[in-house]
Amino acid sequence: MSRQEHQTSQATAYMGTEGTRPYAGAGWYYAEYRDRVSAELIKILAEQLGWSKRDRVLDLGAGPGQLSLLTAPFVAEVVAIEPEPDMLAEGERRAVMADVGNVRFIAGSSDSLPALRSSLGLFRGALMGQSFHWMVDKDRVLEDLSAMIDEADGAVVFVTPRRISIPDELRAAEDMVRELLERHLVNVPPGPHPNGRHDPFEEILKRSSFPRIDMIGRVYETRARLTIESILGYEYTISHVLTRLGDSRGAFEQEARAALSWVKRVGEITVVRRDEALIGRR
Asked: Which stretches within 15-72 are classed as H helix?
């Protein structure tokens, strides 16, 4: 299959995905409960790429700005682009709460990059959390970013938080909630999702303007109190869950809270995490 045919088949598979608002209503839950990388990883990344207070960074598909807020202390400005209004509002609210004044939130998506280029100017690099897989034509996105990123030493970075191991109690609680969700959503069509329908990010980078690839990572433990709110809140960060639940959300939560009543006896848990940053340099 030629590259053009490959891109056409990708676009056909993804068509309509971005317009379905998979995270409508999820802004607060995403900011509160979604797995995120540590500030320590962003510090390592900024040092590795030589970012300084003279530099500007783009956060594409920024959600409620977790990466933007972590990156802000190391650069002059972060521009956070996000299509979901609820995410933008939550990001702006959290920036004010954290007294962070150098993050600018802009409504838009990867499709907006050509129109935004002249007004936004040049950046030292671009960050993406768990957003690149939603973008329809990934090769085109990297081409558009190339025109907005400094020619000399610019980079594109995909940042991913992973769980290496979780305690049995957390696994049991999450499995229980997902079984309940499946029962409540059995007659509700799933929203479109691009997982498994694109090349590995490394391959996409290799054929882009950012072919020099590096990976940095950090393994560490976190401790947190297991609560019913955190278990439900995490599920509400998953695409389409809130919109699919709709009016049945109250009945689902009532059943879930009854099934998870044992959780309050668990107390603190330990999760082993690995933060990863896949870097593509010019």
From this structure: 27-33, 39-49, 66-71
